[in-house]
Fold:
Amino acid sequence: MAQNVKILKKEDDNVTLCDLITQIKKSPKIDECGAIFSFEGIVRGTEEDKRVQKLIMSTPDMEKTEKELKQIIIQVKEKYGVAEIAAAHYIGEFYTGDSLLLVVVAGAHRGETRDALKESIERIKYELDFKKEEYTDEGKNIIMSGG
Structure:
């Protein structure tokens, strides 16, 4: 289900958790599933007692990052034996409450489905090459990850 794994520019596309769940439910493997777990990572309004004004998320090579995201999802699917995983990570300029990361996992049972969701989130956060510029009332903070 590689078409359901994407890096998206916020201004170009708007995918929701409902969209990903709907796509996963169209899979021929859905008959094998008894659980769907979802995660929506959003922009937090405070960070270490600082007020977050905005967040800019970028990646130096969108195609490479999307390819690496797809690899993570393939590996997690194989490791946990889940039926489907859909993921969308946004880049661009964000404000409090905006969605940054969406992940949906469908599996036969809740245990492996939950574990696959957790590993997907952690690997995406720490392994992909993202630069997060956090603008707060105290200035700008740059956070690098992955790569």
Summary: The CA atoms of residues 55 and 134 lie 5 Å apart. Residues 62-80 form the longest helix (19 residues). The mean pLDDT is 93.
